[in-house]
Amino acid sequence: MAPKVLVSDRLSATAIQIFRDRGINVDFEPELGRDKNRLHAIISEYDGLAVRSTTKVTEKILNAATNLKVVGRAGIGIDNIDLNAASKNGVIVMNTPFGNMITTAEHTIAMMFAVSRQIPEANASTHAGKWEKSRFMGVELTGKVIGVIGAGNIGGIVCDRALALKMKVITFDPYLSEEKAQKMGVKKVKLDSLLQVSDFITLHVPFTDQTKNILSRKNLNKTKKGVRIINCARGGLVDEIALSELLLSGHVAGAALDVFAEEPATKNPLFNLSNLVCTPHLGAATTEAQENVALQVAQQMSDYLLTGAVTNALNMPSVTAKEAKVMRPWLRLAGHLGSFIGQLTDEPIKAVNIIYDGSVTTMNIEALNCSVIAGILKNAIPYVNLVSAPFIARERDIKISTTNQDKSGTFEGYVKVNVVTEERERSIAGTVFSDGKPRFIQIKGINIDAEIGHHMLYTTNKDAPGVIGTLGQIMGSSGVNIANFTLGRAREGGEAIALLYLDHPVDEKVVKQLSSTGVFQQIKPLEFDAS
Questions:
Q1: Which of 13, 26, 244, 490 is surrounded by the most beta carbons within 10 Å?
Q2: Residue 510: how many CA atoms within 13 Å on its side-chain side?
Q3: 406-416: string of b/e by CB count within 10 Å (b at 16+)?
């Protein structure tokens, strides 16, 4: 029987035809995404579900989708899809992360022109018959300094377009190497420097704990008088109340926002300010971009349903069915090793060498590499997946190398990840025990045996009496239960590390308590995917 796909949001007729041409039965109901009760009632009939942003693919929907094999999202964001519930139900989630990069970058440039020449206000005034020629004095872009926060896929395109406009381009991106910046023709700077000298500041980073309110009140006050700010990335990157006050005071000459902390944005402290240009999240809203992502998702879903090929999956590795059973725990281990490195590394990564030892050398090394790299990058790029990880690494000039070696130690097989940055090297190794559970077995050359949990705490210190008691006392007084406690040291009195597997995450208050003891050189809460 031919696979059956439901399209519950608006996709182009060409995308629908791709399904039909491939022999897939497709039901096109573009308004169904607004009717969650009916979607819940019929979803069990389908092998695939294609959506944009309107359809909410909730745990309830996924639990009812007894035949569903794949959800395809025409676009980057998957805020409307419960990824964990999909994984638990064995449903692959695919997106199209590169379909709207040009469109979003072009919208940024358009917004920069609009705010620099006050085009919306001038347009409204002229339509009203006022002809206020002297009121709308703009500024040229040529020769101005544009500060680009985040020089990845979209930010990199903005840099290229700004250079073509003869602007001076500087960028803040902890993951951008100096070599890559030079190739791009931009100058890499610290955030404070960017804030102080930029005439225009544009944001191109995902919304994470690290980037939330990156333009906070404090940082906005560091900007030069007359700066203009553009955000076509994600809401929540800018303190909207502080920005409104600085727009009113004139310190910020203008702002152009396509995204807001709360959307749909029907009320906002920024609204109705004459020096604000705003649009309703139109970054990807061009005919070309919408067509590109629609065609891509139809092709990807068809390939999977008909041949088993997996492209741009966020919760499944690109491995064959035969490999999957054996490799699943090793893929989890590889992701955890990368995640550990990624959560501890803020500076640009120059090179990654992955060593495979013993039995693991016979497995699908490419898939394991992808899992390691995705783990490393995920802290900075939440939407990264096993397919896009190598592409993003290449874009960032991260050199990936592998070494296969015969069984050389206690374990039948293990994986070791060595990472080189501009300032240091880091290493971590792990294996999979006979129970199928991944373990960390070495960090910084120090041998350990650490079970990996969802919530963990990593500390380093000089080997000395009382460290265990200090950790236990502070965790206990803070109500954080320790499920597992692993210690290791290089030598007596030398460097020592601890890994705590916790029942609950530690907050900033606990970290400050630990730091105030003066015992620890490094304190880092860690989170690992428990699925």
A1: 26
A2: 24
A3: eeeeebebbbb
CA distances in angstroms from 326 to 322, 330, 379, 391, 436, listed in the order given: 8, 8, 27, 26, 10
Please list the active-site residues. Answer: 234, 263, 281
Predicted TM-score of the model (pTM):
0.75
Residues 143, 149 contacting (CB under 8 angstroms): no
Which helix (H) or strand (E) covers residue 403, if one does?
strand 399-405
Whether 238 and 112 share a structural domain: yes
* Mean pLDDT, all residues of the chain: 92
**Average pLDDT of 338-361?**
94
End-to-end CA distance of the chain: 32
Residues 127 and 252 in one domain: yes
The reply to whether 265 and 116 lie within a common domain is yes
CA–CA gap between residue 278 and residue 292 (Å, rounded): 25
**Within-domain flag for 198:** yes
Assess whether 116 and 224 both reside in one domain.
Answer: yes
- In one-letter notation, the amino acid at residue 440 is F
More confident residue, 339 or 529: 339
Residues of the domain holding 379? 323-452
